[in-house]
Amino acid sequence: MTDYTPKSSALSKALKVVSGSLLALALSPLLTSISTAQAAAQGARVIFLTVSEECEYCARHQQAFKKAVQKEGINLSVKVTNFDPAEQSSQVDQAIAENPDAIVLWPADASAIVPSLRKIKNAGIPLVVTNSLPDLKFSKFWDIYTGPNDKASGESAGQAMIQGFKSKGYGDAGDIFLVVGVPGTPPQIGRESGFREALSSGAPNIKVEGAQPGNWDQTKATDAAASLFTQYGSKVKGVYAQADNMMAGVIVAAQRAGIDPSKLVLVGSNCSIEGVNAIESGSQYASVLQSPVLDGEYAAKAVVDLLNGNPGQAQRYLPQLIVTKENVKDCYYAVGR
Questions:
Q1: 89, pLDDT greater than 60
Q2: Is the Cβ–Cβ distance between 288 and 323 less than 8 Å?
Q3: Segment 109-113 long-range contacts (CB within 8 Å, at least 24 positions apart)
Q4: For the packed helices 186-202 and 150-167, what is the interaxial angle rounded to 10 degrees?
């Protein structure tokens, strides 16, 4: 799939930082200025329905999105729900009643959102789905999806786990557990599916012995990991946490259990500040790049394109790569360094 990236001074700076890396190769041919938007976007009314302002990734996504669309003179209103599908359904009804020029939607639940997507389509309102991809069999109900390919992200995490086992001398066999995001959300479903498939095909003797939700929250992830460490203890050689902030909780739980995190193969995702710091310190082995800044900018570029009658690529996936200590600087743009 084609990656589609709006150009900004920050992004140009980031590309200089990662010159020669896979990220630069993924982005550089595709730089497109959001400032080329035609006058149709000026003064347009857009409603952004998002899932949370409490998780750092969600907040940074929203900040990047708001900055980009407001630069284009778009009148933006934001409605937030704390991953509550019922509340989001009500918010969609309210948004439709306001008859905006476009809606940008981060689904709280992959399945529960489908009736709302159908309502928006029937109302004739242009729709960008951001970050969390519902089942593609329903793709006729939205115009553009921007964000991660979560299954591919999970596959990359699985490859990193296999790589980490070899790097730490564990070969291709051992027990691991998972700390997953909010159950039923597209990232949780896609990342877990991709991760398990990567292990099944590449190292079937690396066994997932258990999984518990950390709900994208460090404290909840700490509790989930503590329970899993109690259950599996010294058998565990690795952990996949579906976000780096949850991996920070896993590291705390390991230390409390008397386990040295650096001896484990700890694989996270998103390249958040927690992951960058942990990778640099050696307590976390790897993450999978997913920038909240680019995620928000992709969504902004997509809605501007729709308002200008230029929908372009229907699926716009973020670039992603496995990040370890050797290339951790590739994460700096994602965390604002």
A1: yes
A2: yes
A3: 109/83, 109/85, 109/184, 109/185, 110/134, 110/135, 110/184, 110/185, 110/186, 110/189, 111/135, 111/184, 112/85, 112/86, 112/88, 112/184, 113/85, 113/88, 113/89
A4: 40
pLDDT confidence of 39, banded at 50, 70, 90? low
Residues 102 and 105: their CA atoms lie apart, in Å, by 10
Tokens of 147: 């964000």
Q: How far apart are CA 11 and CA 140, in angstroms?
A: 32
Beta pairing partners, 79: 49
- 289: pLDDT strictly greater than 80: yes
3-state secondary structure the chain: CCCCEEECHHHHHHHHHCCCCHHHHHHHHHEEEHHHCCHHHCCCEEEEEECCCCCHHHHHHHHHHHHHHHHCCCEEEEEECCCCHHHHHHHHHHHHHHCCCEEEECCCCCCCCHHHHHHHHHCCCCEEEECCCCCHHHHHHCCEEEECCHHHHHHHHHHHHHHHHHHCCCCCCEEEEEEECCCCCHHHHHHHHHHHHHHHHHCCCEEEEEEEECCCCHHHHHHHHHHHHHHHHHHEEEEEECCHHHHHHHHHHHHHCCCCHHHCEEECCECCHHHHHHHHHCCCCEEEECCHHHHHHHHHHHHHHHHCCCCCCCEEECCCCEECHHHHHHHCCCCCC
pTM of the model: 0.75
The overall longest dimension of the chain from CA atoms, in Å, is 62
Tokens coding 38: 């035609």
Q: Which tens digit of pLDDT belongs to each residue from 153-201?
A: 999 999 999 999 999 999 999 999 999 999 988 899 999 999 999 999 9
Q: What's the Rg (C-alpha) of the chain?
A: 20
Q: What is the pLDDT of residues 221-247, one digit of tens each?
A: 999 999 999 999 889 999 999 999 999
Q: For 4-24, what is each residue's pLDDT tens digit?
A: 444 444 444 443 444 344 444
